[in-house]
């Protein structure tokens, strides 16, 4: 084995785009970053999995499963004997992009996967995204 290889740090592909190589490097770099984020969000099998009771979704082979917190059980952590448990909100999936109107398209999502309950934290981040078209 070569210890020098281990010292190498992986860099995002977008960091390889420089002003020396491309006149519009900043725009290209931002577009690459945005495309990667969108790809990861839209291709994750567990992104919108309904794990209740603050369960955590994870991909096991090709199916989504939930890790249930103490006091919960069931395929989606939907069964509990606990009362008045704090449940933090989590985002549902993004809607499809709207038609182009006024030079932009938009999509929405709801804080309902699950919705906050019994004093749980609301979802963080925007519920609407816009892009130019």
Automatic annotation (TrEMBL):
<protein>
    <recommendedName>
        <fullName>Complement component C8 beta chain</fullName>
    </recommendedName>
</protein>
<keyword id="KW-0204">Cytolysis</keyword>
<dbReference type="InterPro" id="IPR036383">
    <property type="entry name" value="TSP1_rpt_sf"/>
</dbReference>
<dbReference type="Pfam" id="PF00090">
    <property type="entry name" value="TSP_1"/>
</dbReference>
<dbReference type="GO" id="GO:0005579">
    <property type="term" value="C:membrane attack complex"/>
</dbReference>
<dbReference type="InterPro" id="IPR001862">
    <property type="entry name" value="MAC_perforin"/>
</dbReference>
<keyword id="KW-1015">Disulfide bond</keyword>
<dbReference type="GO" id="GO:0006956">
    <property type="term" value="P:complement activation"/>
</dbReference>
<keyword id="KW-1134">Transmembrane beta strand</keyword>
<dbReference type="InterPro" id="IPR000884">
    <property type="entry name" value="TSP1_rpt"/>
</dbReference>
<dbReference type="Pfam" id="PF21195">
    <property type="entry name" value="EGF_C8A_B_C6"/>
</dbReference>
<feature type="domain" description="Complement components C8A/B/C6 EGF-like">
    <location>
        <begin position="51"/>
        <end position="78"/>
    </location>
</feature>
<keyword id="KW-0472">Membrane</keyword>
<dbReference type="GO" id="GO:0031640">
    <property type="term" value="P:killing of cells of another organism"/>
</dbReference>
<dbReference type="InterPro" id="IPR048831">
    <property type="entry name" value="C8A_B_C6_EGF-like"/>
</dbReference>
<keyword id="KW-0964">Secreted</keyword>
<keyword id="KW-0812">Transmembrane</keyword>
<comment type="subunit">
    <text>Heterotrimer of 3 chains: alpha (C8A), beta (C8B) and gamma (C8G); the alpha and gamma chains are disulfide bonded. Component of the membrane attack complex (MAC), composed of complement C5b, C6, C7, C8A, C8B, C8G and multiple copies of the pore-forming subunit C9.</text>
</comment>
<dbReference type="GO" id="GO:0005576">
    <property type="term" value="C:extracellular region"/>
</dbReference>
<comment type="function">
    <text>Component of the membrane attack complex (MAC), a multiprotein complex activated by the complement cascade, which inserts into a target cell membrane and forms a pore, leading to target cell membrane rupture and cell lysis. The MAC is initiated by proteolytic cleavage of C5 into complement C5b in response to the classical, alternative, lectin and GZMK complement pathways. The complement pathways consist in a cascade of proteins that leads to phagocytosis and breakdown of pathogens and signaling that strengthens the adaptive immune system.</text>
</comment>
């Amino acid at each position: 084995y070569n210890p020098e290889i281990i010292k190498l740090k992986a860099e995002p592909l977008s960091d390889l785009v420089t002003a020396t190589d491309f006149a519009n490097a900043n725009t290209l770099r931002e577009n690459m970053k945005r495309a990667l984020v969108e790809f990861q969000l839209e291709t994750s099998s567990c992104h919108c999995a309904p794990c209740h009771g603050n369960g955590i979704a994870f991909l096991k082979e090709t199916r989504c499963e939930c890790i249930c917190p103490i006091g919960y059980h069931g395929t989606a952590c939907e069964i509990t004997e606990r009362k008045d448990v704090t449940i933090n909100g989590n985002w549902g999936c993004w809607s499809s992009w709207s038609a182009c109107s006024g030079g932009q398209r938009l999509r929405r999502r709801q804080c309902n996967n699950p919705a906050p309950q019994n004093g749980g934290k609301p979802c963080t981040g925007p519920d609407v995204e816009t892009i130019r078209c």
